[in-house]
Amino acid sequence: MTGPLTPDRLAETMKAYGVIEQVRKNRIRITTAPDKVHDTIRTVQVMFGFDRLITISAADNGRSLELIYHLTGPHRMVVSIAVELERAQPAMPTTTDILPPAGIYERQIHDLFGIVFTGNPHMKRIMLNEDWPADEYPLRKDWKPDPDTFYGGIKGERS
What we know:
- By secondary structure, the protein is α/β, with parallel strands linked by helices.
- It has one domain: Beta Polymerase, domain 2, CATH 3.30.460.
- Helix content is 20%, strand content 29%.
- The strands form 3 sheets. The protein has a 5-stranded mixed sheet with strand order 1-2-5-4-3, covered by helices on one side.
- A hairpin with a 5-residue loop joins strand 4 (65-72) and strand 5.
- The longest helix is centred in the first third of the chain and has 12 residues, at 37-48.
C-alpha cells in the first residue's frame, strides 16, 4: 500500500469484489458473494493491512442468513465483508486458513444458526450442549422449541 488509506481509495480498489458502502467515516461495508469472501479478505489483508479479525456476525433476516466479517488494522479503519446465504442449506468455506481466530466464531455460528463452514477442522459444538437436538438452531427466526424435546436437560415449553 502506498499513500494514506482513505475510504475512497479502499472503495475504488475493492469495487470488483461487490457492492461498496461507506457506513461511517472510518467504516466500509463490502457486500459480496460467498465464493468471493476468501479473496476479498485476502485482498484487504495484503493491500490495506486489515490483519485483525474483530468478530464474525450472523443474523437471520427472515429470507436468508447473513454473515459479516469485521476486520481492522493499525490504521483503525474497519471493513465489514457481508454475504447472504440461502436458508435451506447454508454453507460457507472456512476462513481459518487466513484468519485463524475465525474458528471459534464459525463454531458459535454453526451451533446457533446452522451455517456449515466447510473445511473447518474443528466443527464441534461450543455453545450448545452435546445433547442438543440435531438440526435445531435457536437463533433462527423460524425455530420453535418442541414441548416434548429436551434442550440441554430442560424440556421445551408450549408457547
